[in-house]
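Encode chain A's predicted structure.
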Amino acid sequence: MSTLLPCYVLLDLETTGATPIQDHITEIGLIRHENGIEVGRWNTLINPEVSTSPFIQRLTGITWDMVNNAPAFFEVCEMLLDWLDDAILCATQCAF
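Encoded structure for chain A:
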């Protein structure tokens, strides 16, 4: 009997800060595993449509110049949902 999860996605987000109600996503990265095998990776920068503090820019290495012409979240959310379809989501929060 296998103890592997049938399908899971490791998700990493970078954001403009640590407050979910006011801060926005600047980058999405994920790795999808099915039956213990990595089957794909996807990442994209996201235009947060708000400014990012110099502290966050230093912390993440993501500058306004990098995200200025990136897609907004609404433009990639369907693709993100496709990657997450039928998967267990594995994510963690890093407090700074």
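The beta strands are 7-15, 25-34, 37-45, 88-90.
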